[in-house]
Amino acid sequence: MQRGSAKGASQSRTNWADVLRAWLLHHRSSASDSLRRLIANRISSLMTWLVIGIALAMPVGMGVALDNLRNVGSSLDNPAQLSLFLRPELSTEAAEQVMQSLENRVDISSARLVSREAALEEFQQLSGFGDVLQNLDDNPLPNLIIVTPSVTRLDAEQAEVLRNALQELPAVDRAVLDMAWVQRLNALMLLSQRMVMAMGLLLALGVLLVIGNTIRLAIENRRDEIIIVKLVGGSDAFVRRPFLYTGVWYGLGGAAVAWLVISTTLWWLERPLAALALVYQSGFRVEGLGFAGGLQLLLLGAVLGLLGAWMTVGRHLSAIQPR
Amino acid sequence: MITFDRVSKRYPEGHEALSEVSFTIDSDELVFLTGHSGAGKSTLLKLIMLMERPSRGQVLVNGQNLKSMPASRIPQLRRDIGVVFQNHQLLFDRSIYDNVALPLEIAGYQRREVGRRVRAALDKVGLLAREKDIPITLSGGEQQRVGIARAVVNKPRIILADEPTGNLDPALSAEIMQLFEQFNQVGVTVLIASHDLSLISRMQHRIMTLREGRMITGASDV
Q1: Size of interface A-B (CB pairs under 8 A)
Q2: What CA–CA distance (Å, rounded) separates B108 from A30?
């Protein structure tokens, strides 16, 4: 503050501690005042909260679903198995020895022999070609050893290294990696993740617009007050502050609604999903948003609210000037 | 305290509201500004508040040249000027107390200090008993006094009033003018725009007259 003379000393003197105190005071009163206004307009605020909540719940909820799906992918036993088709001339006894030696390897946790006889029997039962097969002189099927690697989550490269090593064994005719479905799942997950992200961006934009428009109406409703505040020396920041807090409250409330929607939906789906998991003999359990995730959601809502308010306030407040 | 140096204001649509207006008001003065409606009284007041900027010439308020004042400093300027409007410009959604407290809230006073100053201002205009009422329950003259209390609560060095007695009967108008005189007596610079010549000519103060944007009398207090 500049004063040419000491004459006005009894007037609005300012030092930095006072400025800071006034600033904090106004933040507090803006925050509580804007919240009180929202609560006073219960119905319209609730509508806005619901709209924001639903818009946030969709992408976040789908993100949670994807995370769970990824857990399914990894919790299914033996995501990567190798099938070793042994040379046809090898006898079942020899195949058993091969299996024994495989089980002793450190990079293999278990090996299971499907003998050519057992395979033929199964094939006869399942294929419907039983009669035809019985007429064969010779069993055309080779002995098969199914190998589970000791590393539970193999990446494609490690699996390939193991496959090549096993392919080199003299008894092995062909080593086949059963990873195609894992790769397919991963590709699908990547695609869905991108789609959820794109949807999330669009809906976040929607939230910004909803909050912006709501704030615009609030500004219009308080036009007279804004003009008077500017006339008696309110700075732009002073005028802006309550509206920014309004945006934050809308965002926070919307995020809380989204949290509630997601938690309720998961609670509702938990039992049928558990039943489904039981059928697949999987230890799968639904993972919710969690406390940290919920807090992140609230933070996201608050930031979106602040941003939406900021965009609108900047544009509309400068247009309101005392005339 | 307030100096105009060959100030002209031309609005974008081409109408020249003020032409080559020059005058000085000293810090202990009470000055009336008169003229027909459309003579430029309101424009002149708006230039002092920086609600408008002059097309040509310079305006000095409180020793500061407004020409070089950036928009960010305007709030600070306005905190030193109390304004009273013909239509009061009160907020009808809050109490009289809260209306008067607004400038102090903006300036960041502590609650206790706000209370002390608001009550002093309301006492000054004789409305202390009505502090909890809302403005709609007051008469026109009372509403105007609330407007005055709000204008003086921050102890500004300058008070501007635009037709403060516009809608009031002669007795109430005289009362309002007396209030302004009292503020002037404690050292506040007062500039009152009014077309109520019969009232202001009875008071012993300088009268500046505008006609079609030109200052025709009262530019200096000699």
Answers
A1: 80
A2: 13
Alpha carbons A36 and A32: distance in angstroms, whole number: 6
One-letter identity of residue A188: L
Q: What percent of chain B has pLDDT over 90?
A: 58
Q: Which residue has the tokens 């195609």?
A: A180
Q: How many angstroms separate the CA atoms of A270 and A74, rounded?
A: 19
Rounded CA-CA distance A240/A306 in Å is: 11
* Residue matched to tokens 């007041």: B45
- H or E element in which residue B116 lies: helix B111-124
Give the Cα-Cα-Cα angle B95, B99, B101 (nearest 5 degrees): 110
Q: Are strands B30-34 and B189-193 parallel, antiparallel or unpaired?
A: parallel
Report, in this order, helix, strand and coil percent for chain B, each rounded to 5. 40, 25, 35
Nearest to A45 by CA among A202, A249, A206, A205: A249
- What does the alpha-carbon distance between residue B185 and residue A9 come to, in Å, rounded to a whole number? 18
Nearest to A232 among B106, B109, B110 (CB): B106
pLDDT band at A156 (very low <50, low <70, confident <90, very high): low
The DSSP bridge pattern shows strands A144-149 and B16-25 to be unpaired
Return d(Cα A61, Cα A81) in angstroms, integer.
33
Interchain proximity A322–B51, CB inside 8 Å: yes
For B74, the token pair is 């305007």
Residue A131 burial (C-beta neighbours within 10 Å; 0-12, 13-18, 19+): exposed
Q: Determine the pLDDT at residue A217.
A: 92
3-state secondary structure at position B45: helix
The interface predicted TM-score (ipTM) is 0.88
Instruction: Please give the C-alpha separations between residue A39 and each of A35, A223, A252, in angstroms, as whole numbers.
Output: 6, 20, 14
For A7-16, A206-215, A229-238, which range has the lowest pLDDT when averaged over its residues?
A7-16
Residue pointed to by tokens 């392919």 = A167
**A218-277: pLDDT as tens digits:** 999 899 889 999 999 898 889 999 999 999 999 999 999 999 999 999 889 888 888 877
* Residue B38 in tokens: 């459309």
**Mean pLDDT of all residues in chain A?**
83
Long-range contacts of range A315-322, CB-CB < 8 Å, 24 or more positions apart?
A316/A216, A316/A219, A316/A220, A317/A219, A317/A226, A317/A236, A317/A239, A317/A240, A317/A243, A318/A236, A320/A219, A320/A223, A320/A226, A320/A227, A320/A230, A321/A227, A321/A230, A321/B51, A322/A227, A322/A230, A322/A231, A322/B49, A322/B51
Write out the residues of chain B at the interface with chain A, using a CB-CB cutoff of 8 A. 27, 49, 51, 62-64, 72, 75-80, 83, 89, 91, 93, 102-103, 105-110, 150, 154-157
- Is 0.90 topped by the overall pTM? no
pLDDT at residue A323 greater than cutoff 90: no
Nearest to A36 by CA among A163, A28, B178, A221: A28
Give the angle subtended at the CA of A286 by the CAs of A281 and A291, to the nearest 5°. Answer: 155
